[in-house]
Amino acid sequence: MPSDGAGDPVGQATQATQATKVDPADPVNSVGQVNHVLEFPGGYTRSVGPVIGRFLTELRDARLVGVRTAGGRVLVPPTEYDPADGAPVTGEYVEVGPAGTVETWSWVPRPRPGHPLTRPFAWALIRLDGADTALLHAVDLGEIDPGCAPPPTLTTGLRVRPKWRAERIGGIGDIECFRPDVTMITDPGRAEYRLRPGRALGRFLDGIAEGRFLGHRCHVCGKVYVPMKGMCPADGVPTTEEVEVADTGTITTYAVNNIPDPRAPEVPFVSAYILLDGADIAMVALVAGIPADQVRMGMRVKAVWRPREEWGPTMQNIRWFAPTGEPDVPFDAIRDYL
Ligand SMILES: [Zn+2]
User: Fold this and answer.
1) How many Å apart are CA 238 and CA 242, to the nearest integer?
2) String of b and e for 184-211 (b: at least 16 CB within 10 Å)?
């Protein structure tokens, strides 16, 4: 459904008052005819009939109703005749919703004047619970910068509920918009841990403060541990021989995360085990600069460092790892490091 939101019900209302639209600066069209301007300046008032009238009256009371057809289906919004066979509907009104399911949608990255929301939103066909037809309305996905792509939470099947206006007049605008069900909360609590890095980890972070990855090589098995722990877990011996490894490496395994994290640029984001060139143990880091669904085992990556003036003895110096564009490393070369 990628679209700029041209299907615009508010736009239809505008068309009702302007049968023909011309450029006033150019009243003669391309085939030499003079365009006549026909304009109804003030809109119009009409009666709505019993069926739509009932729908609008219930809206004013913050209820959603549909009408049952002779065939048993529930039409929302209701019509006087069944669009399937033209038969008059029954007089039975059925309360539906208020929750519903998005059946299809069209993203509006830059709302125009007259749109129901001033920030990016979606026009959606929403099938309210208990209804057999869908209702067109706006879905508000929260604070989104103008021009941005739709958030990944906007999908067919998304569950939404109406946001009612406090003052209602008996119109479809009595529903300000629909909003997704609440599926997540942000806990304001914050856990902070302080730990003494110890001699080995402290030395590693000193290296990071200089833009270098330091490790230890075990004198028994020859493996290089980054970060170093001061001992070899395989041989149980202390390690002291310091080596510097590259800030490039290979993704061994990775995970796609769909829960927001303040360190990650967006959701979904990827955290990966990265085997730095010259190291024998993989370390965990973020991967960015590539869509999450294109990250691969064996992909070559390089650390993206923050500006040097922001460096300190912390892993925050590294924003994340980004692809280098080199060919992938074959699985056999990394299988022992998984
Ligand atoms: Zn060892």
Assistant:
1) 12
2) eeeeeeeeeeeeeeeebbebbbebbeee
Same-domain pairing of 151 and 61 = yes
Cα 216 to ligand 1 centroid, rounded to whole Å: 10
Q: How far is the CA of 239 from the centre of ligand 1 (A)?
A: 8
Span of 90-99, 178-187, 193-202, 313-322 with lowest mean pLDDT? 193-202
Indicate if 61 and 152 belong to the same structural domain.
yes
Q: Which domain holds residue 240?
A: 197-245
Length of the chain: 338
Co-location of 205 and 278 in the same domain:
no
Give residues with Cβ within 8 angstroms of 39, minimum separation 6: 17, 18, 19, 20
Q: Are the beta carbons of 118 and 159 closer than 8 angstroms?
A: no
118, 211: one domain: no
The whole-angstrom separation of Cα 178 and Cα 103 is 13
User: Could you tell me the distance, in angstroms and rounded to a whole number, from the CA of residue 246 to the centre of ligand 1?
Assistant: 21
* DSSP label of 37: P
Please tell me whether the overall predicted TM-score, pTM, comes out greater than 0.70 for this model.
no
pLDDT band at 262 (very low <50, low <70, confident <90, very high): confident
